[in-house]
Amino acid sequence: MSLRNKNLVLNILSLSLLLGSIVITLPLYRHYLLVHYGLDFSSYYNAGQMVAVGKNPYYRNYLLNDQLLFHTHYMYPPIVADIFSIVHWLNLSYFRAKAIWQMLITLLLVATTYLTLLITLQKKVKFWQISILLACSIVSYPIMMEFERAQINFLTLFLILLSFYLWQYKKNQTASGIILALAGILKLPVLLIFILPLIKRDYKFVAAGVMTFLLLISGSILINGKHLEYRYWTNYLPEISKNYLLPATDQDGNTMGIPQPEKNVFVWQNKKYEAMEYFASYQGSAFFYQPIKNVIKPKNINQVAAIVYLILISITFWLIKKGKDLRLTLGLIMSTILAVHPMTWTMNYCWLVFLATMPLILSIQKRKWLVTILSAIIVILASLPEYLIGKSSTIISTLLLQRYSISGILLLVLYSIAVFQLNFDLKTAIITADKQRNKT
């Protein structure tokens, strides 16, 4: 079979797989788009509405007097609320704004898939390759939950990968630093990725990121006033870091956020999908937090967790210095962010589009089957929807409920092994790829 015919067959088969995935999941995604509330997006929407009229986005406020679901606590920096204030200026209703945001998530999924393959393969991405990865992503439970909650994780992942691509493949340190700072203001733990250019002594990258971050904070002060900015960094954020929620009241005695309603208030508008939308408590904990909490007294949990995280970060630093392939070191830092962050939820696992795909492809190319097997196990564990697990007390069911703790540990083990087994000089690889491309 000629190369042209082979590509044609692969294109047809991959397109069939993609269309099959779309057909299977379309009713669920349609429900999320048109009917479902999208709880997390309501915090962005509400914060944008409040800050647009000069109110504190962290104070208690009922969204549209809606008694079905209350919005979750808004915990991002004030400047992010300013970005979402566009919903006020465009006079967008809640469900229209949510639908636009979910459509953006869909576009970001395609763009992130493309960037993942471009960074991993270091050559032109073929249609069948992106179709297969998209098909697998669409049916993945974390990506379903990212869409259902209308979260912000895909935007941060896209910005991280775009920053890395421009840095390593286009040698544009300034743009890379700016973009990574934008991702960092959306999700503060992403700022840990600046460790990578620091270790590589790329100070132009770091300077661009620092300047961008300071400009964003300065802009927020000009828009919102220094009082709100000061309160966020000195009062709200420390409380969020400690208890994973806003304080009940701030230093002025104002009531903060909105308490979660009683469990029976969480009635989904379409019972057909209730099982697929069920969130177990295990999914709302950091990978290392839940196992530690099960054996340590609650009053000591933060101290013990801090020690575990410090050890973990120290090991990560050591492994990063060992690494030459910056793709793997980027994956190692991102995996550490997922493990360290105390509010890692199911939808944060949408980062597996990059974190699992990249080592999986590299390990197959280099025939390092341990990395391949670990990548496959992580994908399978993380992609299992809740309704397939059930609520029985069997050992298997209990372990599966802990699958995010297990997958998080395996993810770090995976990258620790990959740094040694798959490691090679990325610059040499890029030069080799360029030579092959020129010959072709």
Q: Can you describe this structure?
A:
By secondary structure, the chain is an all-alpha fold. The protein has a domain at 284-440. The protein has helices at 3-34, 39-52, 78-84, 86-89, 94-121, 127-138, 141-149, 153-168, 173-186, 195-199, 203-224, 226-243, 274-277, 289-295, 301-322, 326-340, 352-355, 357-366, 369-383, 386-389, 395-401, 403-421, 426-439. The longest helix is centred in the first third of the chain and has 32 residues, at 3-34. The protein is globular. The two termini are 20 Å apart. The model is unreliable at 259-298 (pLDDT under 50).
Which key terms come to mind for this protein?
single chain; 440 residues; mainly alpha; 23 helices; 0% strand; globular
Overall pLDDT = 78
| Rg, Cα atoms, Å | 22 Å
Could you tell me how far the N terminus lies from the C terminus, measured between alpha carbons in angstroms?
A: 20 Å
Number of helical elements: 23
Beta strands, count? 0
Characterize the largest beta sheet: strand count, sense, and whether it forms a barrel.
none
Given the C-alpha coordinates, what overall shape results? globular
Helix amount? 55-70%
Give the SSE map.
Blueprint: H1 3-34, H2 39-52, H3 78-84, H4 86-89, H5 94-121, H6 127-138, H7 141-149, H8 153-168, H9 173-186, H10 195-199, H11 203-224, H12 226-243, H13 274-277, H14 289-295, H15 301-322, H16 326-340, H17 352-355, H18 357-366, H19 369-383, H20 386-389, H21 395-401, H22 403-421, H23 426-439
Helix pairs in contact: 1-6, 2-3, 5-6, 5-8, 5-18, 8-9, 9-11, 11-12, 15-16, 16-22, 18-19, 19-22
